[in-house]
Design brief:
The protein is globular. The protein has eight helices and no strands. The protein has one domain. With about 180 residues, it is mostly helical.
Amino acid sequence: MQKKHNWIYIALLFIIEIVSVFPFVVNNNVRLLMLVSFFVHFVFFTIFYFSKVSLFKNEFKVWVISIGVLVLLTSVVVPENYLQFDGRFVYSLTITFYSLMYFYSFLKEDIKPCKYEIILNSSILFFFCIDAFLAIATSYLINNNLTLVSWFWFFRAVFLQLFYISFVYYLWKILKVQ
C-alpha cells in the first residue's frame, strides 16, 4: 500500500470530523455524512487488506468496491421509508471480514506482520465488529431513552478512539521505518 493512500484517508477522515462539528452543514445531512464516512473506511480498508492478504485476488477488489458504491447509491437515492437499510452494517461487516481474513492468513503463516500491524488489525476488528452490531440496532438506539443507550454510544466512541490511536501509531511506525 502506498503512503499517499494513507494520507488521503487521514485527510478525508479529518475533513469529515471537521464538517460534522458544524450544525448548519450537518443539520439534515447526518445520515449522508455517516454513509460517506463509512464508504471512505470501506474503500481504504479494501485497498489496505488486498495489499496485505494474499488470499484476496486483485480483480475481486473491483467487484467489492463496486458493491460498496452500489450500497452507497442505494442508501442515498432510495427514500428511507421504502428501504429500511443501513449501509453502515454492510461496510462494517465487510471490514470485519477483512480483519478476520488477515488473522487467518497470519495463523496460516502466509503473512508475517509486525507488532504494530497486529495492533492496528485488532483495533479494526474490535471497532468495526462493534459498529456492525450497533448498525443493526441504530433505530432502537436513536429512539430510546438516552440514559439507557448512552453506554452503547460511549462504548463505540472509546473503540473509535482506540482505532484512531492505533492507526496513528501504525503510520508513525511505517514512516519511521522508511
